[in-house]
Amino acid sequence: MRHSLSGIAASSGVAVAKAFVHEEPDFTIRNKTAEDAEKEGTRLEEALATSRDELSAIKQKALEELGEDKAEIFSAHLLVLSDPELVEAVKGKIKDDRATAEHALNEVADMFISMFENMDNEYMKERAADIRDVSRRVLGHLLGIEVVSLAAITEDTIIIANDLTPSDTAQLNPQVIKGFATNIGGRTSHSAIMSRSLEIPAVVGTKEATTTIKNGMTVIVDGIDGHVIVEPSNEELDQYKQKQADFQKQKEEWAKLVNKRTTTLDGQHVELAANIGTPNDLEGVINNGAEGIGLYRTEFLYMGRSELPSEEEQYQAYKEVVERMEGKPVVIRTLDIGGDKELPYLDLPEELNPFLGFRAIRLCLERQDIFRDQLRALLRASAHGNLKVMFPMIASLEELRQAKHLLDEERDKLESEGMNVSKDMEVGIMVEIPSTAVAAEQFAKEVDFFSIGTNDLIQYTMAADRMNERVSYLYQPYHPAILRLVDMVIKAAHAEGKWVGMCGEMAGDEVAIPLLLGLGLDEFSMSATSILPARSQLSGLSKAELARFAKDALNEDTADAVEQLVVDAYGSK
Fold this sequence. Notes:
The protein is an alpha/beta fold. It has 22 helices and 16 strands.
């Protein structure tokens, strides 16, 4: 019977094919205790070794078909398999509690998963997904369960699942897997990220895909608007096939913009940059025609390891990005970690409210040994291109001045050592705390640029944890209060002749783009796959006309009213 589901559009495009429901194996553990601990330890080691071999093969396949950046996910999985904290805890449970290998693994993995999932940070939630994926693989071997391989599918198919793990998505052959829909997940989940890399249309977070869709049913996945249509009528099939053809034409038009400057209808240039986490992300950045890197999140260099990265290791990572961008601007954010992003080797105390706690610049100013190493690496890399340094989580002028002072000290030391560093490297800050936005006039006198981090600015301004579903209705990018803070920051910077970028999700939002252009934003930084659609949208907008329009938006009283204003005028969403 025909029906439709709504979810989150995770990867654009339209797909039509028969459904294959990818069911979860039954991992029920019936035997929880064992007499022979040594035998259980051997079983564990064998299951770990088999899983290690499988993951190495999957990683190689991902490397060949998806590229180095996506293969890195499986490097992280291999690290989980050899993580002494996890493995030793399982072995300890086998020995001390006389637990079976499968029960011990399940208990320890659940503890780690729960710990990571309760952190108010999307990256750490993804680490929980990594542990779940790896532990289930090992558990399958311990329980003798054969997991269905999605790589074996040979005809055009749409995968329906509760969720797809990184291992699942790495097995998808885009020649036959035309799309997928899941019950859970969001735009930043691994399955969503991989689907965009494979350019497979995907809708996630439908809540009930697996309970309403059966094997063999004809399904349409609309990854543009976030709909799944089950057993569509002939009329709907024709309609969506036309939408599919239109989207393909649209992609071909966007591809023509790869080497173009981003210019508005009235001839104004704005910079479209990309957000990255590692040098491995550069291929997508270059292929999508980014005009720079608006945010390089350096914390990824510090994660998934047992010790701090050396100055030399950091220097090489920054240098690679700067050189490959060939003179285009590269904004590198200093370490934004602590509190919600835990590094086991730093032994940081647990905090009741880590988002408001000891993190980012606060940690760096106290742990100057860590900070100075990073500053030295950044200064050395600045000699190789257009590198700009950005400090995160700045709440006061005192913090900014102290950070700049340390940077100046390290520059003087490097120059006295005969090192080559840039003489005119720009220094800016993330504007993500309301106090900084309100005091933007003072900050603008002491920085070279601002980059507005809307993800945190919105949650701090609205006092609404963006990871908490019960208050998610308050996470409102178009709220007049947010727009007024953005307006305040841009005006303060421009009064001092400084530029302003934005590196939060809002920068690539099709409703927000006309508003931000009208408010005078100079640089929009987003995920690489959003660049060409944004460039296309901006080319049809007049900055002068939107300046007047944005003023009207600031005077609206609700986020819904602002959104409706944009939709009525520009047809977005």
